[in-house]
Protein backbone atom coordinates (compact mmCIF):
# COMPACT_ATOMS: atom_id res chain seq x y z
CA UNK A 1 0.00 0.00 0.00
CA UNK A 2 1.78 3.20 -1.14
CA UNK A 3 1.84 5.89 1.55
CA UNK A 4 3.24 9.37 1.71
CA UNK A 5 3.65 10.98 5.12
CA UNK A 6 4.42 14.67 5.44
CA UNK A 7 6.24 15.30 8.70
CA UNK A 8 6.54 18.84 10.04
CA UNK A 9 8.84 19.41 12.99
CA UNK A 10 8.87 23.21 13.13
CA UNK A 11 8.83 24.83 16.57
CA UNK A 12 8.51 21.51 18.34
CA UNK A 13 11.77 20.48 19.86
CA UNK A 14 15.52 21.10 19.91
CA UNK A 15 16.74 19.58 16.66
CA UNK A 16 14.32 16.87 15.60
CA UNK A 17 11.58 14.53 16.62
CA UNK A 18 12.51 11.77 19.07
CA UNK A 19 11.11 9.49 16.35
CA UNK A 20 12.83 9.57 12.93
CA UNK A 21 10.66 10.24 9.84
CA UNK A 22 11.35 6.73 8.50
CA UNK A 23 9.93 5.22 11.69
CA UNK A 24 6.81 7.38 11.45
CA UNK A 25 6.27 6.25 7.86
CA UNK A 26 6.71 2.61 8.84
CA UNK A 27 4.26 2.98 11.72
CA UNK A 28 1.63 4.63 9.54
CA UNK A 29 2.04 1.94 6.91
CA UNK A 30 1.53 -0.81 9.53
CA UNK A 31 -1.45 1.00 11.06
CA UNK A 32 -3.16 1.51 7.72
CA UNK A 33 -2.72 -2.18 6.96
CA UNK A 34 -4.65 -2.98 10.17
CA UNK A 35 -7.25 -0.28 9.45
CA UNK A 36 -7.70 -1.21 5.79
CA UNK A 37 -11.44 -1.83 6.27
CA UNK A 38 -11.87 1.83 7.25
CA UNK A 39 -9.98 3.19 4.22
CA UNK A 40 -11.60 4.24 0.97
CA UNK A 41 -9.96 2.66 -2.04
CA UNK A 42 -7.10 4.74 -3.40
CA UNK A 43 -3.77 4.13 -5.16
CA UNK A 44 -1.93 5.65 -2.19
CA UNK A 45 -2.56 7.74 0.91
CA UNK A 46 -1.13 10.95 2.31
CA UNK A 47 -1.15 12.11 5.94
CA UNK A 48 0.23 15.27 7.47
CA UNK A 49 1.76 14.97 10.94
CA UNK A 50 2.85 18.11 12.76
CA UNK A 51 4.64 18.00 16.11
CA UNK A 52 4.29 21.36 17.78
CA UNK A 53 4.16 23.31 21.05
CA UNK A 54 1.36 23.95 23.52
CA UNK A 55 1.22 27.56 22.32
CA UNK A 56 0.54 26.62 18.71
CA UNK A 57 -1.91 23.83 19.50
CA UNK A 58 -3.80 26.16 21.86
CA UNK A 59 -4.20 28.64 19.00
CA UNK A 60 -5.56 25.90 16.73
CA UNK A 61 -7.79 24.48 19.47
CA UNK A 62 -9.25 27.94 20.07
CA UNK A 63 -9.71 28.66 16.38
CA UNK A 64 -11.28 25.35 15.34
CA UNK A 65 -12.86 23.97 18.53
CA UNK A 66 -13.53 27.19 20.46
CA UNK A 67 -11.53 25.83 23.40
CA UNK A 68 -8.87 28.33 24.41
CA UNK A 69 -6.48 25.86 26.04
CA UNK A 70 -3.76 23.48 24.89
CA UNK A 71 -4.66 19.90 24.08
CA UNK A 72 -2.59 16.82 23.32
CA UNK A 73 -3.76 16.00 19.79
CA UNK A 74 -5.95 17.51 17.09
CA UNK A 75 -7.08 15.73 13.95
CA UNK A 76 -8.55 17.37 10.87
CA UNK A 77 -10.01 14.72 8.59
CA UNK A 78 -10.18 15.55 4.91
CA UNK A 79 -12.56 12.65 4.32
CA UNK A 80 -15.27 14.59 6.16
CA UNK A 81 -15.16 17.33 3.54
CA UNK A 82 -17.06 16.93 0.28
CA UNK A 83 -14.18 17.66 -2.03
CA UNK A 84 -14.82 17.21 -5.72
CA UNK A 85 -12.71 14.37 -7.08
CA UNK A 86 -12.54 13.34 -10.69
CA UNK A 87 -11.88 9.79 -11.88
CA UNK A 88 -8.37 10.87 -12.91
CA UNK A 89 -7.63 12.26 -9.44
CA UNK A 90 -8.67 9.01 -7.78
CA UNK A 91 -6.32 7.02 -10.01
CA UNK A 92 -3.32 9.35 -10.15
CA UNK A 93 -3.12 11.18 -6.85
CA UNK A 94 -2.72 10.00 -3.27
CA UNK A 95 -5.88 10.27 -1.17
CA UNK A 96 -5.25 12.95 1.45
CA UNK A 97 -6.56 11.62 4.77
CA UNK A 98 -5.93 14.80 6.77
CA UNK A 99 -3.79 16.44 9.42
CA UNK A 100 -2.70 15.18 12.83
CA UNK A 101 -1.21 17.78 15.16
CA UNK A 102 0.43 16.71 18.42
CA UNK A 103 1.77 18.94 21.18
CA UNK A 104 5.20 17.73 22.25
CA UNK A 105 4.85 19.79 25.45
CA UNK A 106 1.65 18.04 26.51
CA UNK A 107 2.93 14.67 25.31
CA UNK A 108 6.01 15.07 27.51
CA UNK A 109 3.89 15.83 30.60
CA UNK A 110 1.54 12.93 29.89
CA UNK A 111 4.46 10.55 29.30
CA UNK A 112 5.86 11.45 32.72
CA UNK A 113 2.43 10.99 34.34
CA UNK A 114 1.97 7.61 32.65
CA UNK A 115 5.59 6.65 33.40
CA UNK A 116 6.51 5.79 29.84
CA UNK A 117 8.70 7.34 27.15
CA UNK A 118 7.93 10.40 25.05
CA UNK A 119 8.10 8.16 21.97
CA UNK A 120 5.39 5.90 23.40
CA UNK A 121 3.15 8.88 24.17
CA UNK A 122 3.69 10.37 20.71
CA UNK A 123 2.78 7.04 19.12
CA UNK A 124 -0.32 6.77 21.36
CA UNK A 125 -1.53 10.27 20.50
CA UNK A 126 -0.78 9.91 16.79
CA UNK A 127 -2.66 6.60 16.63
CA UNK A 128 -5.60 8.37 18.30
CA UNK A 129 -5.43 11.13 15.69
CA UNK A 130 -5.27 8.61 12.86
CA UNK A 131 -8.40 6.88 14.09
CA UNK A 132 -10.17 10.25 14.07
CA UNK A 133 -9.03 10.80 10.47
CA UNK A 134 -10.71 7.51 9.54
CA UNK A 135 -14.02 8.42 11.15
CA UNK A 136 -13.64 7.04 14.67
CA UNK A 137 -15.07 9.21 17.44
CA UNK A 138 -15.79 8.90 21.17
CA UNK A 139 -18.98 10.78 22.07
CA UNK A 140 -19.72 8.32 24.89
CA UNK A 141 -17.88 6.00 27.27
CA UNK A 142 -18.52 2.86 25.20
CA UNK A 143 -17.10 4.32 21.97
CA UNK A 144 -14.15 5.82 23.89
CA UNK A 145 -13.26 2.38 25.30
CA UNK A 146 -13.54 0.84 21.82
CA UNK A 147 -11.26 3.53 20.39
CA UNK A 148 -8.69 3.21 23.18
CA UNK A 149 -8.62 -0.56 22.72
CA UNK A 150 -7.97 -0.06 18.99
CA UNK A 151 -5.08 2.27 19.89
CA UNK A 152 -3.63 -0.53 22.04
CA UNK A 153 -3.84 -2.86 19.00
CA UNK A 154 -2.10 -0.28 16.79
CA UNK A 155 0.72 0.27 19.27
CA UNK A 156 1.17 -3.46 19.81
CA UNK A 157 1.63 -3.82 16.02
CA UNK A 158 4.66 -1.53 16.19
CA UNK A 159 6.10 -3.21 19.27
CA UNK A 160 4.82 -0.86 21.97
CA UNK A 161 2.92 -2.49 24.81
CA UNK A 162 0.44 -0.30 26.68
CA UNK A 163 -1.42 -1.52 29.74
CA UNK A 164 -4.76 0.19 29.51
CA UNK A 165 -6.58 0.47 32.80
CA UNK A 166 -10.19 1.56 32.29
Automatic annotation (TrEMBL):
Which keywords appear in this protein's UniProt record, sorted alphabetically? Cytoplasm, Endonuclease, Hydrolase, Metal-binding, Nuclease, Ribosome biogenesis, rRNA processing, Zinc
Q: Is Ribonucleoprotein included in the keywords of this UniProt record?
A: no
First-listed, main subcellular location of the protein, grouped into a coarse class: cytoplasm
Q: Which co-factors does it depend on? A: Zn(2+)
| Record Gene3D superfamilies | Metalloproteases ('zincins'), catalytic domain (3.40.390.30)
Q: Name one GO molecular function term.
A: metalloendopeptidase activity
Q: Name one GO biological process term.
A: rRNA processing
**One Pfam family for this entry, by name?**
YbeY
Any one GO CC term of the record: cytoplasm
Cellular localization per UniProt: Cytoplasm
Coiled-coil zones: none
InterPro entries registered for this protein in UniProt = MetalPrtase_cat_dom_sf_prd, YbeY, YbeY_CS
Source organism superkingdom: Bacteria
Q: How is the cofactor bound?
A: Binds 1 zinc ion.
Q: What is its EC number?
A: 3.1.-.-
Binding residues annotated for Zn(2+), in chain numbering:
128, 132, 138
Q: What is its biological role?
A: Single strand-specific metallo-endoribonuclease involved in late-stage 70S ribosome quality control and in maturation of the 3' terminus of the 16S rRNA.
Query: Belongs to which family?
Result: Belongs to the endoribonuclease YbeY family.
Protein name as it appears in the record: Endoribonuclease YbeY
Amino acid sequence: MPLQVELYLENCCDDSSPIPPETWENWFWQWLEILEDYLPTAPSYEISLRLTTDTEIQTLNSQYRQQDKPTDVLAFASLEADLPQSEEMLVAMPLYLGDIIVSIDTAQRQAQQQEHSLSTELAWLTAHGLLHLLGWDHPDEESLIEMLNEQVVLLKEIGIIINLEL
